[in-house]
Amino acid sequence: MSTLSYYRPVDGKRYLDEVQDEAYASSSLHGDALIEAESRIPRRTAIVEPASGAMPAHRAERLCLSGAWRMIDCDPADPGDPAPNTGWFGRRAKASPGMIEKWYAPGFDRSAWHEVQVPTTVQKALVELGLLEDPLWNTNTIDELEAHGEPKERPLWFRRTRVERRDWWFAKTFETPPAWRGKRLTLRFDGLDYSGTVFFNGASLGHHKGMFGGPDLDITGLIRYDGPNELVMRIDQAPESWNGLLKGSPGFGWHYGHLISMGIWRDVWVQAEPDVAIVDPYVATASIEGGAAKLRIAFAADSRSADRATVVVEGDIRRKGAPADAASALRFRSAVEASYGRNEFEADVELPDPALWWPVGYGDPALYTLTLAVRDAEDAAEAVDAIAVDFGVRTIELRPFADTAPETEYRWQFVVNGVPMFIKGANWCWPDPMLEQNEALYERLLELARRGNVQMLRAWGGGLVEGDFFYRMCDEKGIMVYQEFPLCWGPPDSPHTDLGVLDRQVTRSVKRLRSHPSLVMWGGGNENGPHGGADEGLFLVGRRCRRFDPSRPYHRTDPWGGSVHNWHVYHFGEPMDAATLAMPSVMYGEYGIPSMPNRDSCLRYVPEEALASWPPTEDSRGLLAHSHQFSLKDVIKVMRYGAYGPIRDWDDYIAYSQTAQGETLRFTAEIQRAGAGVTKSGFWYYKFTDLFPGHSWGIIDYYGTPKLSYYRAMQACRPRSAFATYAKMNGWAAGETFEAGIHAANETRETLDGASVSATLYGSDLIELWSNRYEGLTLAPNAVVSVDRVAIALAEDERIRPFLLAVALRAADGSLVADQWYWFNAQAKSEELLAFEGRHTGNAENEYPGEQAAEAFDLYASLPDAPMRRLPEARLEWSLERSADGTAGEIRIRNVGAVPAVRVTIEGFPDDDWGSYLGDNDLGLYPGEARGIPFQTRRECPLDGISVGAWNAPRI
Fold this sequence. Notes:
alpha+beta; 8-stranded parallel sheet
């Protein structure tokens, strides 16, 4: 597919895209000789002819081995010291008991082994068996690491637990279908974590490394038809570090939790192979023009026949889910010649009048299914093999901005189906450290993303190469994905990075995912800064991505080539507004601060008494075990951004930390959005989901419950919106000129005619200081416009502590489209506190050892005022209407007071129930305004615990 490209050359200029492509094309760097040889197989053109009639029938012959297995552990092998050691000096090497006693041998008595359900991780299986205390509850993990973690000389969280230092053996007995006699059989593993050896009927089939698929092993000569077959898998003890491995990094203890997963975490299969197999289908949209889409289809025919043969490949393209007799299906055929081994083909197919795949906010994400079947003769009644893949008709292009630096910066303007888009996105972290592949949880999280107006997820390079059902759901919901490979913080060169493992795992992943329309970009990993060596690992990933999937960009890492991550906020303790404005970027790859989950979620990982005392101390072990870097500094770093009033208990901290998190996400999002299409391409806030329960950056907590910050991010990402940009949130003084940009966005494909934007500045008495309305606006499709730049002289001091700005976009009929409420001077910090914060600003200084932590908690508890809590009082009324079937409804809230209601929040809605979704929260209401907040829930879910209040209105 060398003619496919995601960018158009610009005369006289080369950008980082071309620079990297040229380097990959001229290089011979590889890790696996077979994959390198495969990458050089020329693709032959398959001549496509129309076809009619039904597709030939085919039934795949595969046996799933998931289900009941047996599991046991033992000491790992000891290589001696120094290793390897044969006993001549130092500590003698020794084999593990499992190998000495031949646990893999046929007929070995495994009746005493534990019965577990595969797929699983070891930790998940042990918890279910009652043999391991839940590692996510309270102090269980920290207790284990303190008492038993090794090696002792390492910091506590970088040790390994007893479970992680053992070998774990899995065994399965199964019968083979008699009809398979004489057929070639393959044993396939979809996911082993992270390495181990496979034994089949007593024979070793070799060792495997890599958790994203493989090995695929020929067991034809070992299979039994006259008795049970015995499959045994030894999973090696967990690796000591993620560095250089394609393995998620947070569980190794650097972040906010410790659990190094290990086990058989995806399905295991035995498959009967045909003489000619059709494999690795790939569909890419080459162009969309003239009412038709030109599709480039690639596939391989793997032949095990010694003779060269002509086979007929038949294709069928139809809307996903269309019936077998759908008249709209496109049928075609091609006769191809297959010799022994791998045969690569590609064909161009024209799809008339296609339904396009669109991202969130731009239209329906239409999907198609391509089915390919192969007959070994023209008149054969059945196919010898068939394969199906879902895809979408869509193009992806990246364009440079006018000031993009040649040679050193990527093109960053995302263009989908010819439409330039400003990307409103978030970082995604895989949702369970025990690798629970819970599709209901994924559905919950991705539906929250869709409803939260998230157009693109950055599958963060500390996590996973996500699975098929994740991408299926993103396809269906219109959520684009930037998939980074899990390589973090400078993966070393070989031999410390095994390039063979890297080559095989990356190639397998690219082939598996490349037809998904939601996948729009590949990445080499997270925060892999300038490399001091040969950069072999990231370079090899780039070679394979560009060779096996030329339709998408590959970025070496993020931040790189024009994107930034903002560590100055939170980590360095710098002011959120000033630090953001001092770090302009075309693309914001990471930014944000942590917050505490809701109280009900906290009580799912610590006991209630843990939340009964404030402030936390070094003895608050359960809470610290669920905090970033397991220390008090996590909470203290957040308080400087959430000092909306005295912080004297955990409820104060929960409310204020979620408020601060939401404001941080909105500020940068709107700074970026104001430059949409000119100097800014988008953002991925950090982050959407959580891997461990606790105090973290996720706006959806580990249990799938939204924080208040979720709704602020939802509001900032609305496709149609009016919003404001400004220089600072606090520190405004009487006599200063308050300046703000007023903007309107219509990031859809439809014109918004006759729109209006209003902007109102309120004093601390909630009386208008200034107001303006901009009428008769026509917002073109996919446009962000500057409506005005206002400069307002601020009133006397007592009227601006705090003061507020409300900005609203209305349709031609006056109905509200979207609004935003901002507050300034909302934090009354004492001079003593400001001086303390000033002393603790910077990478090294923003730490709080010993008595400094106690001083910090005293200062934030002693804040002299809560300005937002003493605004003039509004009055709210509300009612709830539920549909006849109980699955939907509306919470209707009216401000019947004389002043705006600020930060109106709905509490008690069952948003911890995975079937429940609330359409908005944490909003403002003008005097007399009524707002209907839609919701969805399960029929049987009670709604009798709801209350509504505001920061200046009593809760009712």
